[in-house]
Specification:
201 residues, mainly alpha, Rna Polymerase Sigma Factor, Chain: A, 68% helix, 0% strand
Amino acid sequence: MPVNPEKHTDLGRLSDEDLALALKGGNELAFEEIVRRYQGRVYAVAYRITTNREDALDVTQEALLKVYQKIDSWQPTGGFLPWMLRLTSNQAIDHLRRVKRKRHQELDESALNEYALDNEESGEENTAKSVWAREIAERVDDALVVLSPTQRAVFVMRHYEGLALSDIAESLNCTVGSVKVHLFRAMRKLQKALKDMRGGE
């Protein structure tokens, strides 16, 4: 079947949910658009949970494949992006369990930049402030290795991706209460790991 380039361009104008419905309806080009639009976000979540570039690339590939395979289980009543990020975090946790190793590696900032994450706000360029903010962000990312895979996933989904506690609970197949416990423990561990950054006068 010949590909209609105009049809491909039109897909870029669709909302996430309409794009997902198009894929659900068998439109293969919709999957290409989903990959183009969201591989950066998927990679960012995978990287922060696995803390390793190679593992994150594997998880990104596996997660996007899962999106393609499981699209029939997505329901239009729930947002498509939260569903995809839940799939990604689950894939990352499974990957860590499968590989059975925790590798401590400094955050490779260029690896994140390479995937163009739309997190940067252009505006006031107060050098001292932005350097300090960047250092804090790097230290938090580095400190994620002290968390268990589940705590890491909960922290990333909540504080980096802004998912609701109920969405996280559904993703991890547990109660909202359990998610709160994981979040509380993650915050306690991170506070301990970053205590030298508090009150440094």
